[in-house]
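User: I've been trying to design a sequence by hand for this structure and keep getting stuck. Would you show me what you'd pick, starting by listing the structure so we're on the same page?

Assistant: Good idea, let's start from the same input. This is the structure you sent:
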């Protein structure tokens, strides 16, 4: 075993940790707006953080564990990812505010797609850990 190769036990733990991170990011996207806003410190763009954390978790799953997902799971992840990508860009800047998170129909659709993804995996609809460090997230402020 080379230094960068995980044992079968290590690989299984690595996969479990990454799927847990993905679950938490989807759970966060499925939450009601006020609960979503509580997940992040005030000095970040909270809507943006919701999407960024999901994109980061999904990238790892696609890169390392995509073959572990069923076709239904893959489809639900792709649909959510595509929808978030369509919200990007300068023209959609107003979709990334706290107010938009609270009241925009776009975020209602994000929540619906996140609920579908949770269902595809058989994951519960619940609040992920509130402490960012517990979710594996670190924020740096001045």
């Amino acid at each position: 075993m080379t230094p960068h190769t995980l044992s079968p036990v290590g690989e299984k733990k690595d996969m479990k940790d990454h799927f847990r991170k993905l679950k938490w990011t989807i759970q966060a996207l499925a939450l009601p707006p006020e609960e979503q806003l509580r997940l992040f410190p005030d000095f970040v763009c909270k809507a943006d953080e919701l999407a960024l954390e999901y994109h980061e978790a999904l990238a790892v799953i696609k890169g390392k564990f995509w073959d572990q997902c069923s076709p239904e799971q893959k489809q639900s992840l792709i649909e959510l990812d595509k929808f978030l990508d369509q919200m990007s860009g300068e023209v959609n800047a107003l979709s990334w505010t706290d107010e938009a998170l609270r009241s925009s129909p776009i975020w209602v659709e994000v929540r619906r797609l996140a609920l579908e993804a949770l269902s595809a995996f058989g994951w519960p609809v619940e609040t992920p850990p509130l402490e960012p460090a517990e979710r594996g997230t670190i924020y740096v402020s001045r």
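That's my pick for every position. To get oriented when you compare it with your attempt: Confidence is low (pLDDT under 50) at residues 1-5. The helical segments are 8-30, 33-38, 46-65, 71-86, 98-103, 105-121.
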